[in-house]
Specification:
heterodimer, A: mainly alpha, two-stranded antiparallel sheet, B: alpha/beta, Rossmann fold, six-stranded mixed β-sheet, globular
């Protein structure tokens, strides 16, 4: 019997000591240490995402269909009331595709931030009991948001194909670019806000309000052309508008998937010119991605400073 | 007596946990909302209480030891256990450790009520550090240990508290830890199951695993531990054998 104990003792005596993980590196490399740690927990991340998805519509007979019903109803509301009744669809060809493209990408961003912000507090039971790299919780929330995004994406692509205008062109490259940028910024805010939310619970309610506001700050239900026309006397306002990485990503996403926006169409007898997409879009997107990565880095550093006291603050 | 108290093993056992000058301060704020913080801004010192849960605690634990942390309520033993487990970061001092660590701090902490027993076994094992493949291997053995085979595909929210705890304990003991942290959770289930848990703990001792135990049960401490650390108001007041520890504990109650 002692042999098993001896084998263990021998193995342990050869292991290096690790300092309590939480005392964690405070230097720049800490970011990469954290990424490595999360990578070694990717099986857990996968299970947490599944848990989130499985438990969301558990016991409902429609299940996942619910995650589609909400955006489709949203689409209907915006299409009928904003588009037809209030007239935002005038001069916008294929308004339904235009709106649904915007809603799909916006859904990814808002769901990542909203569920991510609450993720640390709602997993408090686990955080108080077991040591895990805590970034895994906002990331799991992101994972389930990506899943919902992909489901909506399938619907969007199906609609585009049914309408017979699949946009096969280089513009399609804007789609993954927009996705990546939204993901970088979404994860950065989710990580940062989830940590702040532990210390100040108001954050999660504040986020809801701010997201409501930001929805209208991006060209989702109104077109870019509308913005250009509205501020034609103060063109510098357009630059301010485009500083929002999400507005920029949504524009890029629409440019990739909403073919009618890049063509001349005839609508109710009037000729509609293609959208006047913002200049230097590629460069702007690159900028948004680089700045986003820097913000993500800073967010993670703040997170790792704050996480030392999570267990006692929750 | 458990065989790990065999002096030959203990003599050359490596150190697995080393705490050096660990201190932990809690700041207790009396306000939580933004409004209260703004209203009390500048006077916020009045609304804070400092409280040292641990003061300058240092010790080493050798592999294969079963060590009991005891003390009155609020003496800092659970905090110490959490600091050792890396869940709380100390304000001062360092904790070094090696080997796989599993915490039996509160059984079923990672259970999700809407998932089935089977799904929870995979989730909880993963939280405690097992890979999917390892869980596949241990799955049958976990279910057998918990004795709830017929309910394994039922959502755990329908479990009785006994079934819940059985499944959680079964997972925790299958994680193959080198260091096991136990916080007052050994008194679970009915009598036969408790006996089974105690057997498992003894088997762990025989296998040279290190067990760090927080308990209020003098009987359990005397029975299992070969070393006792007594805490009082965050300070270590005694560090030695079980009998002496229990004596020191009674003394500390009187202060």
């Amino acid at each position: 019997m002692a042999t098993q104990a001896e084998v263990r003792a021998l193995r342990l005596s050869e292991l290096p000591f690790e300092t309590s993980v939480n005392a964690g590196p405070k230097y720049v490399g800490g970011f990469f240490t954290a990424i490595k740690e999360i990578a070694s927990h990717r099986e857990l991340l996968d299970l947490l995402i599944r848990r989130e998805l499985k438990s969301r519509y558990k016991d409902s007979s429609l299940g996942f269909v619910w995650s589609l019903i909400k955006p489709l109803v949203q689409l209907l509301i915006y299409y009928v009331f904003i588009g037809q009744v209030l007239g935002a669809a005038k001069g916008v060809a294929d308004f339904a595709i235009f709106v649904f493209a915007g809603l799909t990408l916006w859904g990814l961003y808002s769901e990542t931030i909203a569920t991510g912000t609450a993720s640390i507090v709602s997993n408090g039971g686990l955080i108080k009991k077991v040591y895990l790299p805590r970034e895994i919780f906002p990331l799991a929330a992101t994972g389930s948001a990506i899943f919902n995004f992909l489901v909506q994406m399938v619907v969007l692509l199906a609609a585009i194909v049914v309408l017979g205008q699949f946009p096969i062109s280089l513009n399609l490259l804007y789609v993954p670019a927009a996705f990546v940028i939204v993901l970088i910024w979404g994860v950065a805010f989710a990580v940062l806000l989830s940590a702040l939310n532990v210390y100040l619970r108001d954050i999660q309610y504040l986020v809801e309000v701010v997201m409501l506001l930001l929805f209208w700050a991006s060209p989702i239900v109104y077109s870019w052309g509308f913005v250009v026309a509205a501020v034609k006397n103060h063109t510098w306002l357009l630059e301010v508008y485009l500083l929002n990485p999400i507005s920029l990503s949504i524009l890029a996403f629409q440019r990739g998937l909403w073919q009618a926006g890049s063509q001349t169409r005839v609508l109710e007898g009037k000729e509609v010119p293609p959208q006047d997409w913002p200049a230097y879009m590629d460069l702007r997107l690159l900028g948004a991605a680089v700045v986003g990565l820097i913000v993500l880095f800073i967010a993670q550093r703040i997170f790792s400073r704050l996480q030392g006291n999570f267990a006692q603050e929750i | 007596m458990p065989s790990q108290s065999d002096p030959r093993v203990l003599a050359k056992a490596p150190t697995v946990v080393r705490a050096t000058g660990v201190s932990k301060r809690f700041v207790i704020r009396k306000e939580k909302s933004l409004k209260e913080r703004i209203v009390n801004f500048g006077r916020s010192q009045k609304h804070k209480d400092d409280f040292w849960a641990l003061r300058n605690v240092s010790f080493e634990i050798k592999a294969g030891t079963t060590i009991g942390l005891v003390g009155a309520n609020g003496s800092g033993k659970s905090t110490l256990l959490k600091v050792l487990g890396g869940i709380i970061q100390p304000n001062d001092g360092t904790v070094e450790r090696r080997g796989r660590l599993a915490a039996l701090l509160e059984l079923g902490a990672g259970f999700h009520p809407d998932l089935t027993g089977r799904e929870n076994v995979y989730l909880n094992s993963s939280i405690l550090g097992l890979s999917r493949k390892q869980t596949d291997e241990y799955f049958q053995s976990i279910v057998d240990f918990s004795e709830i085979e017929e309910f394994i595909d039922t959502q755990v929210k329908f479990y009785s508290s006994g079934m819940y705890v059985r499944l959680a304990f079964a997972i925790a003991v299958h994680v193959d830890p080198d260091i096991l942290l136990v916080d007052e959770v050994l008194a679970v289930g009915d009598e036969p199951f408790q006996a089974k848990c105690m057997n498992k703990i003894r088997q762990f001792q025989a296998e040279g695993r290190t067990i760090i135990l927080v308990s209020h049960s003098a009987g359990q401490i005397e029975d299992l531990c070969d070393r006792v650390v007594v805490l009082s108001h965050g300070n270590v007041v005694f560090d030695g054998d079980a009998a002496g520890g229990l004596l020191a504990l009674r003394e500390s109650f009187e202060h």
